């Protein structure tokens, strides 16, 4: 069952007193169960900070994060049932691909047979079944990214967070992996938030897009809304709408 995600009235300040910096301001985003939402904006606009707050790696100064209707602010990351994929894959170098994918399941004490079945399913979904015995050093960049996604997917999380996962890949691979991520989302139906600074990626991947600038959501809408009915000149310029 997919969960909803509600980001409600999130403010975030770093530091104290007059040295403090406001990084997120009154962010309200509702993500429907099973939806794939894109968060797009220039570097430094607060995208990673928002993802970290959703994941519990950071706390908001104000506001709530509700997963399946439940406020999770203050709950440790491991209890939130969230998987996160970054641009750096951080695979375990000494483990095989299969062990990398199955590690979290082993930690959860899932029995070996069940674990093996889950690893095989995920590997088939990602078309990496032929790579299960290899080490990360024996893989290409795109294959490593698939393994990283497989590792996240194997846990069957309630929520999938992507923080610019493709920005280290070359242009051709990036296009290929975009299609892969889209397919994976359709197959798994897991509620997802995908962060990028790339307008093209945003427009091709998402069913809805939140455009951010300076810690504020400028517009939240479908690619059609954003492109054809930009809320302000910033959005129009950033997305490259016809004026
Ligand atoms: P993005 O992911 O959109 O590039 P970030 O969320 O990483 O942006 O950063 C947003 C702003 O918050 C930046 O100005 C960054 O310098 C600042 N920032 C991020 N983390 C911290 C921190 N731990 N302490 C102080 N400032 C931070
Ligand atoms: Mg970032």
TrEMBL record:
The chain holds residues 1 to 243 of 353 of the full protein. This is Sugar ABC transporter ATPase. GO terms for cellular component: ATP-binding cassette (ABC) transporter complex, substrate-binding subunit-containing. It comes from the Bacteria. Residues 5-239 form the ABC transporter domain. GO terms for molecular function: ABC-type transporter activity; ATP binding; ATP hydrolysis activity. GO terms for biological process: carbohydrate transport. Keywords: ATP-binding, Cell membrane, Membrane, Nucleotide-binding, Transport. It comes from Acidovorax temperans.
